[in-house]
Amino acid sequence: MQRHPSPDYGYYKEFEDSEGEASESLCSSPNTFSKSMENAILSSDNEINIVSCFNNIDKSFLLSNTPNELCPNLATKDFNIQETQKEIVIRYQNQTEITECIITSIPHPNSFPKIASDYSMMSPNIIGWIDIQSLPPADFNTFVNSYLKKGYQKIKEHIRFLQIFNPNIEKMNNLIGIRRDIPVGRIMFHFIGSYNAVEGKNLYLANGKTKEYQSYPVKKLFSNLNIPSGFIFDCDNGGSLIYNLEKQSNKLKSAVSINFSNPENVFSKKPSYDDWFAFSLTSEREKLPLCQNLPRDFLTCCIISPVDISIICHILQYYKISFPSNSLIALIKSRETDTLYAALNAICEGVLTDFLSNDMIYTMLRTDPIIAHCTKFFALAQFLLIPYNIHPISRPVLPLMTSHHLWMQWQATIDIWVSNSTQSGFSDSIFLNSIESFKYYWNGQISNSLLSIINNIPYLESEKYDYIFPLLANYCMKSAKNRQQFVSVVLFINLFQKFLCFNPQDKHFESICYLILCTLKTSPKLVFSIGKEYDLTTLCKLVFYPSLNWKSHAYICSIISMIIPATRMIRLVLCSYDYLNDFLKLLFEKRSSFLLSNIILLQRILKYSFDELPQIDPLNFATVSIVSIFHSNYEIRAASLSVLISFLRQNSSKNFNYMIILFSIFLISDMSYMVRHLLLNLICKYITIDASIYTTSSTKNIQITSTHAFSNLISFWMNEEIDLKDIQFDKYLLHVQNIMKKANLTNDFKNIIYFVIDYFCRDPHPFIKNTAQQMKTFLSSRGKMYSTETQINITTGSSSSSLNSSSNPKSPINSLIQSSDSSWRDSVLDESDSDNDTSSHTTFYESEALFNSITNQLIKIESYYLKKFSHIKGLNKSLHRLSFTVGKPLSKVNHESLELKRSRSFDTKEKINSYVKTVTLQNEIDIQKLNFNSRINKMIFVNDSLDLIITTNDQYIYLIENNYMKNNKTANVIWKQHIFDGVSDLRVQNDNYYSKDILISTNDGCCSLWNSFQKSPNVIFRADSNYLCELVPQFATFSGKSYIVSSRGNSGLSKWDINTQRLAGEWMHTLNHDSYTNFNIISALHIHPLHENIIISGFNDGCLVAIDLRQKENIFEIKLSEKIISVTDDGNNVFAATANGESFIWDLQKVDLNRCGLKRGKIMSFDSNTENFIFTSNEGIPFLTEKTNTSDILKIKEVSDVMVSVLHPNKKYAACGSRNGEVNVISIGP
């Protein structure tokens, strides 16, 4: 396999000679790793000096705008943190032991029967491919011993071999000593029997000299060898032996179960008497026929020389009269048969993979090379003996596999060998044909047998088959089912050996890296196949290879990360001083994907090898991780938090732990649920290692503070003005430096911890919420932290400069807080519970969610794009239909004109006298009815189609694919998901026809961003820092393709970056009118159709404001008469509607606002498009009018009890959703 030259790691030395701040800071220290961390941030005079720790850090990588190449967003599986956080590797105890010793038992040659014939003296008696009649008896033992030993050593080079020649009772009893020498490994007993060697429960040991037989109980043999063990019975009636071994095994299992029910043995290891294998040539009462050309050791020949026995049987079956009987063995020996072995090996494995389950494939073919070899050629023995009506049997029971089509391929190959000895490369035809079949059936169902043969091809001696790796990699990328199928048949050890000697500069290197990662991720237990004999130093040094692309580098880091928990040898390499010193320099990589992979690898090293680290300063790695928290890539922020979790230690300085928490706390506003999950884990770990301060006596006068903006919140904690939209590490570093010098730091720090836990108790992600509630209960059990002296202080300043201003007692925010279940004191446990055991909470911070998510992305990155354009079509196969009815199209109606007076301000008491013509249309409307089971809350059309997004009162969201315009008259639910609260706002943005980004805002102040490909939100976050307010609606809308703008209550505007998943800015509403106290809660939000930085906000008190986020002053502010319920646009104008039925237009080319409709009583909803208005009265009746002539209002009587009505943005269709769950899609024009 050493085809490529060994990789040149000369570049690795330059790291040792390079000069730089990073390498100088890693000088040896007299302290150990954990001890040096204790005083890591203390200067010589014991004063905190944090700034000096970061002066030498190169922070230029934070300025990199390199996008994250791991393109797929977090998927549905990643959202389920409860599952993804679990450890992915299994324990070694579950693995099968490897065969360490082979014991062969063969009788004296005189014990073998001869053919009863007048010509018996001329008939051969074949054992070990030699006629024992022509071999002197004295040489028989030496010959057979050499033959069997060489055969087994080809399977496994280093194995103990013991032969019992002419066995007797004494020799069999001495086998118990072998088990003493090999207490753990598997012992394989290979029995070659003579005539009548087996009868019932006993082996009959023949003495060739005296021709006497001695019986030996098979159960005693089982007791001598014990478990783990294996048996090969190459004799007649062998099935009866396996039957009796099974009985003995069951008897011992029953005895063990009774014994281990004794409490005294509860800590002892329970032996597994199921850990044994057996292969027999014959079933019960079957005998091998006495054929002069069939060897007496038939099963042994199948195991040791399978090609030879195949050729013999094929000739005897099809060419018996063409070859002299006494020349068959000579024929085989005179011609090359080695080239046939690879083909036969692949065929046998292919046959087995089609008949066995994945668990059986792993047990029989992947754990032990001896067992795997015996299993493969046991299948061959089944096929060769079927003409003789002999049925080999095994334990575990293997099915009869003689009908598989690959045996015909094998027979054809032997035919070619027999008929044409000069043809070269004929055995390769199996592999070439398999490759062509694999390519042909690429998009169909590939059988296990075909995939198994393809898996065998790259390990041939020929170099021309390396292109198989890209083929297999592309196949695995297509789907999880393909990956599972590949892993079930992969030869992992062969693949890993090939990987270790592969040149990183080879064009196929990325593919083999992908296959290794895919295999370990799909079946983590295969990591235990990597034994001590493999040199993993080369693998570890691949991280430094300069010419790797980002994918190969990420694959390498992930492979190493998966091997770390199970292999101590690789941990020793990674924890060496030189390796860590060089690895530190990689952490300043400016490319996001490289930096992410490196940080993930660092986290795995720290998690599993923290106590094995050499004498280096830990602050070097901690500071890099702290700086990386400020990175624009949310996965890098999450990875950095996971590293910092490892640095929080019981024996660390409190100041060191405080520093880590304070640097991370601003991530409370992060959009990424993975970042918040790990931030909460960081807080939980800190609490568990410093729980002594959370007692009744030390938790008085706790202040839980809620504010109008996240920047206000962080500023309040840091006691300095901080703007999160422009947060920079160097500035934030000074803030942390100053706050850590405060005298009452501990008390303030506890207040922050309490607030964060309470804040996360209302997080929109269910797992984060549940974890925080458990930690809240744990803190309550430590003492009455939520006592009657606890103060909830709400800061409502309109800007950062008024951080300590008192809240307005008349504000609806305060009234909501006072009326809601917002106090911590409600969850106080009885004081008697304060001594509860805390051990159940010590695992709060342990999580594999991020690592599993990253590796999932690496594996699925190509399949993400393969699926992108076929998702909808595939999904429709399992959709349910909705009923509908169709009427006549809507006819045109004449409208009377109405002149509107333009003005910049409006008298709310102004009377407008005009004639309104109400037209009721019956039996003239084309309606499509879609029936749901719950009240319709929100609806929106998807551009360029009649597809609808609908939310219902039972907290479900639907994406309806409507085929009405295609005359298909069907509507399919192609996407239905559960949401977590009542919906207050709904928006949609189309990337293309197939992908739809759906933005949902809920009444608890949260937003979630969904993609119609997935069953969980890509992003879910709290958009308002006032988490205690649970009844104020949240509004949010897309601002271009990369941002979200949100607002809630009187908290101002927030802008969120979808790509970086963090807060991009906060602005307070600066209203000039006098009623900014009780009713200035936002009720509508809209983005200027031409300028994404201009936001139009409507309020409960009728105020309408246009704000340019690039300026400090409002574009305009107008006070209307009633609550503004909707703000929409048609591309050229912006429209606003009030609850009393008035509508207004803002011409985008001008500054003034004008009335564009008539007061039509109280309304619940309003919408517009390029030609029409539609609104719904409080009585549940929808009305329709044209913009050019609003004197005629069409009353759609056919639908009733409507809650919301919407217009298609550029087509003549409307949709009405009713209280009873009915949606009507209406054609409003030809």
From TrEMBL:
Residues 95-246 form the Raptor N-terminal CASPase-like domain. GO terms for molecular function: protein-macromolecule adaptor activity. It comes from the Eukaryota. Keywords: Repeat, WD repeat. Residues 798-817 have a biased composition (Low complexity). Residues 796-819 are annotated as: Disordered. GO terms for biological process: cellular response to amino acid stimulus; cellular response to starvation; positive regulation of cell growth; regulation of autophagy; TOR signaling. The keyword Acetylation does not apply. One of its GO terms (cellular component) is cytoplasm. The keyword Cytoplasm does not apply. This is Raptor N-terminal CASPase-like domain-containing protein. It comes from Tritrichomonas foetus. The lineage of its organism: Eukaryota, Metamonada, Parabasalia, Tritrichomonadida, Tritrichomonadidae.
